[in-house]
Amino acid sequence: MIKDKKKGLVLNEGYNDFKLGSNVSEYLDRPHSLRHFEPTFLSDTYHFDDEDIDLWCNEDGTIYTIRCLSSCTYNGIELIGMAYDDFTKLMQVDSPDEVDALYMMDANGKGHSEDVTGFYSLGLKVWFDNQKNSIYVDDISGPIVNVFIVSSFDE
Description:
Blueprint lengths: L8 E2 L3 E2 L2 E2 L12 E4 L9 E4 L4 E5 L5 E6 L4 E2 L2 E2 L5 H8 L6 E8 L5 E9 L4 E7 L13 E7 L5
Antiparallel strand pairs: 1-2, 2-3, 4-5, 5-6, 6-7, 7-13, 8-9, 10-11, 11-12, 12-13
């Protein structure tokens, strides 16, 4: 039996064959680039081109966060671009455990707001485009723009 490596999001575990808690060295034979964002992040970020994901690792290379940028499937359903209400229904959760609003600037100097939501039981931080520029959870209005699979909400 051939096992499909492209299984998508596995809650509290990883994405495709990238696993939280594994060492990044297991994946470095794939096309990737190394980035370091100072002073925001205290660790290096590995971007894997073919999957369009980022991995954040601690000093010994253990993966503690996986960020899906352009695609994140769960049970065959694409999450990037999904509306908040559809996401909470699919995941069978009422609301996030935490919400924060961030103002983001793009390379052209244009800004927009994003809602960063934490779903502890799912091991996910999900960023939604905040089309109303509101900080209230009832006002989360835009589509998902990023999905972070996290090993801890303390990072």
